[in-house]
Design goal:
20% of the residues lie in helices and 36% in strands. The chain is of the alpha+beta class. It has one domain.
Length: 75
């Protein structure tokens, strides 16, 4: 079963976008990365998804699991 994800990604024109994994639709557009992270994290927590933050180069910089972590190891 594929995990649900939300991503913070750079907008090709300017600013930052929050998108749901696999969907090209922009959920939220912000001027700053910090604002996109804040709003994206709120959505990810509410929807219990993996939260992935990308850098300007598109590479993953950080991720957080707010959902049902597939890891079965306690801790």
């Amino acid at each position: 079963m594929a995990r649900e994800e939300h991503h913070v990604v750079p907008d090709p024109d300017e600013g930052w976008n929050v998108k749901k994994g696999g969907d090209p639709t922009v959920i939220i557009h912000t001027e700053t990365k910090e604002e996109a992270i804040q709003k994206g994290r709120e959505i990810s927590i509410r929807e219990k998804t993996e939260f992935i933050i990308h850098g300007k180069d598109g590479k993953i910089q950080e991720s957080d699991s707010h959902g049902h972590d597939p890891e079965s190891t306690p801790g």
